[in-house]
Amino acid sequence: MFAKVNHTKLIHHGRVFKLITENITLPNDTTIDLDIIRHPGAAAIVPMINNKEVVLIKQYRHAVGKYIWEIPAGTLAEGESPIECAKREIVEETGFHANIWKELGEITPLPGYSDERIQVFLASDLLEKEQKLDSDEVLNVHKINFDEAINMILDGTIQDAKTIFGLFMAKNKLKL
Protein backbone atom coordinates (compact mmCIF):
# COMPACT_ATOMS: atom_id res chain seq x y z
CA MET A 1 0.00 0.00 0.00
CA PHE A 2 1.24 3.48 -0.89
CA ALA A 3 0.49 6.93 0.47
CA LYS A 4 -2.57 8.80 -0.79
CA VAL A 5 -1.83 12.30 -2.09
CA ASN A 6 -4.55 14.65 -0.81
CA HIS A 7 -3.23 17.81 -2.47
CA THR A 8 -0.08 19.33 -3.90
CA LYS A 9 1.16 22.92 -3.77
CA LEU A 10 4.01 24.36 -5.87
CA ILE A 11 6.34 26.36 -3.61
CA HIS A 12 9.13 27.20 -6.07
CA HIS A 13 9.91 26.44 -9.71
CA GLY A 14 13.67 26.80 -10.16
CA ARG A 15 16.05 26.42 -13.05
CA VAL A 16 16.67 22.72 -12.33
CA PHE A 17 13.91 21.46 -10.03
CA LYS A 18 10.53 22.20 -8.44
CA LEU A 19 9.92 22.39 -4.71
CA ILE A 20 6.45 21.26 -3.77
CA THR A 21 4.51 20.52 -0.60
CA GLU A 22 2.31 17.45 -0.66
CA ASN A 23 -0.31 16.66 1.92
CA ILE A 24 -0.43 12.86 2.10
CA THR A 25 -2.08 10.13 4.08
CA LEU A 26 0.42 7.38 4.87
CA PRO A 27 -0.45 3.66 4.81
CA ASN A 28 -0.82 3.82 8.62
CA ASP A 29 -3.54 6.54 8.23
CA THR A 30 -1.30 9.37 9.45
CA THR A 31 -1.75 12.58 7.45
CA ILE A 32 1.30 14.85 7.03
CA ASP A 33 2.75 17.61 4.86
CA LEU A 34 6.00 16.81 3.06
CA ASP A 35 8.31 19.17 1.19
CA ILE A 36 9.57 17.36 -1.91
CA ILE A 37 12.07 18.28 -4.60
CA ARG A 38 10.84 17.12 -8.02
CA HIS A 39 13.94 16.61 -10.15
CA PRO A 40 14.16 15.65 -13.87
CA GLY A 41 16.91 13.10 -13.19
CA ALA A 42 20.60 12.98 -13.99
CA ALA A 43 23.35 10.90 -15.52
CA ALA A 44 26.85 10.33 -14.15
CA ILE A 45 29.91 8.81 -15.75
CA VAL A 46 32.94 6.84 -14.58
CA PRO A 47 35.42 7.66 -17.38
CA MET A 48 38.17 5.04 -17.50
CA ILE A 49 41.34 5.84 -19.42
CA ASN A 50 42.37 2.21 -18.94
CA ASN A 51 41.83 -0.25 -16.10
CA LYS A 52 44.35 1.70 -14.05
CA GLU A 53 43.23 5.35 -14.41
CA VAL A 54 39.93 7.15 -13.94
CA VAL A 55 39.04 10.73 -14.80
CA LEU A 56 37.68 12.64 -11.79
CA ILE A 57 36.76 16.28 -11.42
CA LYS A 58 37.29 18.53 -8.45
CA GLN A 59 34.34 20.90 -8.62
CA TYR A 60 33.30 23.91 -6.56
CA ARG A 61 29.94 23.25 -4.89
CA HIS A 62 28.55 26.35 -3.23
CA ALA A 63 25.89 24.44 -1.26
CA VAL A 64 28.64 22.69 0.73
CA GLY A 65 31.05 25.62 0.53
CA LYS A 66 34.03 23.85 -0.96
CA TYR A 67 35.55 21.94 -3.86
CA ILE A 68 34.65 18.24 -3.86
CA TRP A 69 35.85 15.22 -5.83
CA GLU A 70 33.27 13.84 -8.24
CA ILE A 71 32.71 11.80 -11.34
CA PRO A 72 31.31 13.94 -14.18
CA ALA A 73 27.52 14.25 -14.15
CA GLY A 74 24.66 16.43 -15.26
CA THR A 75 20.94 16.97 -15.20
CA LEU A 76 18.80 15.55 -17.98
CA ALA A 77 17.47 18.13 -20.42
CA GLU A 78 13.79 17.87 -21.29
CA GLY A 79 13.25 14.81 -23.51
CA GLU A 80 16.87 13.69 -23.14
CA SER A 81 17.68 10.08 -22.24
CA PRO A 82 20.23 9.29 -19.52
CA ILE A 83 22.76 7.96 -22.06
CA GLU A 84 22.39 11.07 -24.24
CA CYS A 85 22.96 13.22 -21.16
CA ALA A 86 26.02 11.16 -20.17
CA LYS A 87 27.54 11.50 -23.65
CA ARG A 88 26.98 15.26 -23.59
CA GLU A 89 28.28 15.75 -20.04
CA ILE A 90 31.51 13.77 -20.41
CA VAL A 91 32.61 16.07 -23.24
CA GLU A 92 31.38 19.25 -21.55
CA GLU A 93 33.03 18.59 -18.20
CA THR A 94 36.15 16.57 -19.02
CA GLY A 95 36.91 17.18 -22.67
CA PHE A 96 36.81 13.42 -23.37
CA HIS A 97 34.58 11.46 -25.74
CA ALA A 98 33.95 7.76 -25.04
CA ASN A 99 33.38 5.07 -27.65
CA ILE A 100 32.29 2.31 -25.23
CA TRP A 101 29.43 2.72 -22.75
CA LYS A 102 28.09 0.30 -20.13
CA GLU A 103 25.35 0.83 -17.57
CA LEU A 104 26.47 0.53 -13.95
CA GLY A 105 23.12 1.14 -12.26
CA GLU A 106 20.84 3.77 -10.82
CA ILE A 107 20.84 5.51 -7.46
CA THR A 108 18.29 7.56 -5.57
CA PRO A 109 20.58 9.86 -3.59
CA LEU A 110 18.05 11.77 -1.44
CA PRO A 111 14.88 9.63 -1.10
CA GLY A 112 13.73 11.41 2.06
CA TYR A 113 12.90 14.59 0.16
CA SER A 114 13.68 14.23 -3.55
CA ASP A 115 12.61 11.97 -6.43
CA GLU A 116 15.95 12.49 -8.23
CA ARG A 117 17.43 9.38 -9.80
CA ILE A 118 20.92 9.24 -11.25
CA GLN A 119 21.77 6.70 -13.94
CA VAL A 120 25.49 5.86 -13.75
CA PHE A 121 27.55 4.69 -16.73
CA LEU A 122 31.03 3.32 -17.29
CA ALA A 123 32.76 5.05 -20.21
CA SER A 124 35.92 3.71 -21.87
CA ASP A 125 37.95 3.94 -25.07
CA LEU A 126 38.32 7.66 -24.43
CA LEU A 127 39.42 10.24 -27.00
CA GLU A 128 40.40 13.78 -26.06
CA LYS A 129 38.09 16.49 -27.36
CA GLU A 130 37.53 20.12 -26.40
CA GLN A 131 36.09 20.74 -22.93
CA LYS A 132 32.88 22.83 -23.07
CA LEU A 133 32.10 23.92 -19.51
CA ASP A 134 28.84 25.70 -18.73
CA SER A 135 29.36 29.22 -17.37
CA ASP A 136 28.40 28.11 -13.85
CA GLU A 137 30.83 25.16 -13.72
CA VAL A 138 34.07 25.72 -11.81
CA LEU A 139 36.12 22.53 -11.93
CA ASN A 140 39.46 20.91 -12.65
CA VAL A 141 39.95 17.59 -14.44
CA HIS A 142 42.29 15.00 -12.91
CA LYS A 143 43.54 11.61 -14.06
CA ILE A 144 43.73 9.47 -10.92
CA ASN A 145 45.05 5.96 -10.38
CA PHE A 146 41.92 3.83 -9.85
CA ASP A 147 43.22 2.22 -6.64
CA GLU A 148 44.05 5.70 -5.31
CA ALA A 149 40.48 6.82 -6.10
CA ILE A 150 39.11 3.90 -4.07
CA ASN A 151 41.45 4.86 -1.21
CA MET A 152 40.13 8.44 -1.47
CA ILE A 153 36.68 7.02 -0.68
CA LEU A 154 37.98 4.97 2.22
CA ASP A 155 39.87 7.89 3.79
CA GLY A 156 36.94 10.30 3.39
CA THR A 157 38.45 12.49 0.67
CA ILE A 158 35.66 11.50 -1.73
CA GLN A 159 32.28 12.00 -0.03
CA ASP A 160 29.94 12.44 -3.01
CA ALA A 161 27.39 9.59 -3.10
CA LYS A 162 27.17 9.18 -6.90
CA THR A 163 30.95 9.08 -7.10
CA ILE A 164 31.25 6.45 -4.37
CA PHE A 165 28.55 4.34 -6.02
CA GLY A 166 30.04 4.76 -9.49
CA LEU A 167 33.60 3.88 -8.50
CA PHE A 168 32.58 0.80 -6.51
CA MET A 169 30.27 -0.39 -9.31
CA ALA A 170 33.07 0.14 -11.87
CA LYS A 171 35.47 -1.79 -9.63
CA ASN A 172 32.98 -4.66 -9.53
CA LYS A 173 32.19 -4.53 -13.27
CA LEU A 174 35.86 -4.41 -14.27
CA LYS A 175 36.90 -6.95 -11.61
CA LEU A 176 39.60 -4.58 -10.32
Give a quick precis of the structure.
By secondary structure, the protein is α+β, with helices and mostly antiparallel strands. The chain contains three helices and ten strands; from the N terminus they run E-E-E-E-E-E-E-H-E-E-E-H-H.
Detailed description of the structure:
The protein has 176 residues and is of the alpha+beta class. It contains three helices and ten strands. It has helices at 82-94, 146-154, 161-174; strands at residues 4-13, 18-25, 31-38, 42-47, 53-61, 66-70, 73-75, 96-107, 118-128, 139-145. The longest helix has 14 residues, at 161-174. The N and C termini lie far apart (41 Å). The model has no long low-confidence stretch (mean pLDDT 96).
